[in-house]
């Protein structure tokens, strides 16, 4: 079963849609996901899909798609904020961030994505990657807002 497991909307900004495979249930990772989801002042939605199959929700067009993939680009938080900020300023309505399960993403999904984003070259468990992504999305929005949460190194 797929379904939306959270929706917090506030302010006018690009809609952040996290699409993640696998059930997070009640877990330490779920607590982290919820913590950053609640802090985000941009509209954010989390759609959970089964490990395989499931229906990918219809996009809000125009859309940009980011695949979380260890073979993707290692970007600094500021670089990611620049990209997301540009998409917002260009009038994108949705930026979706897709996390795979044990087998990752298909070659077709990789080819169709606008950005492959890596959190380093190591392979992380998908639930940890989900928590890390929510933190990065929060960080990105604070960078764009000039909020002091992010302290550039
Ligand atoms: C256990 S990993 C899948 C590994 C799989 N061997 C593959 O080919 O991608 C599950 C998911 O977590 C995310 N993930 C794991 N490590 C990552 C990393 N270093 N950077 C970005 N995402 C990562 C990706 O979305 C990945 O599809």
UniProtKB/TrEMBL annotation:
SUPFAM superfamilies: alpha/beta knot. Pfam families: SPOUT_MTase. Belongs to the RNA methyltransferase RlmH family. It is found in: Cytoplasm. Specifically methylates the pseudouridine at position 1915 (m3Psi1915) in 23S rRNA. This is Ribosomal RNA large subunit methyltransferase H. S-adenosyl-L-methionine binds at residues 68, 100. HAMAP family: 23SrRNA_methyltr_H. PANTHER family: METHYLTRANSFERASE, RIBOSOMAL RNA LARGE SUBUNIT METHYLTRANSFERASE H. One of its GO terms (molecular function) is rRNA (pseudouridine-N3-)-methyltransferase activity. Keywords: Cytoplasm, Methyltransferase, rRNA processing, S-adenosyl-L-methionine, Transferase. It comes from the Bacteria. GO terms for cellular component: cytoplasm. It catalyses: pseudouridine(1915) in 23S rRNA + S-adenosyl-L-methionine = N(3)-methylpseudouridine(1915) in 23S rRNA + S-adenosyl-L-homocysteine + H(+). Its EC number is 2.1.1.177. Homodimer.
